[in-house]
Amino acid sequence: MAFAKFLGPKNDVAFLRIFGAEKNIAEKSLIIKIAYDELNKFRWNEEDLVAYKGRIIDLQKGAVILEYKLGLAKEEGIKIGNERRNLLEALYGQ
């Protein structure tokens, strides 16, 4: 088949549309960037490894903080919703 060379993921139109050119893949996807960083760690010096691990910890802390704030926001939203429901029930009856 002469067209088999065009079936690779680097030539696939859908693949290129989602991820862009090969040089832009790491820029567009955080997961792919992290994977590239993990692979490159073998060539890093101690200072770079410490900085990278610190950045990962910072990202994890940020995720925990966001999750906590989201939980607080949900609780506050439920509280406001219950207050409004109670007010409507008081005004219009059940």
Question: Outline of this structure?
Answer:
With 94 residues, this protein is mainly α.
Element layout with pairings:
Blueprint: H1 13-19, H2 25-28, H3 30-40, H4 46-92
Walk me through this protein's architecture:
The protein has 94 residues and is mainly α. It has helices spanning 13-19, 25-28, 30-40, 46-92. The protein is built from four helices and no strands. It folds into two domains: 9-43, no CATH class; 45-93. Helix content is 73%, strand content 0%.
Global morphology: elongated
| Number of beta strands | 0
- The domain count comes to 2
Portion of residues within helices:
over 70%
- The N- to C-terminal Cα distance equals 73 Å
| Count of DSSP-assigned helices | 4
Mean residue pLDDT: 77
Assembly level: single chain
Indicate the low-confidence ranges by residue numbers. none
| Computed CA radius of gyration, to the nearest angstrom | 25 Å
Largest sheet: none
H/E order of the elements?
HHHH
Beta-strand fraction estimate: under 5%
Classify the secondary structure makeup into a structural class: mainly alpha
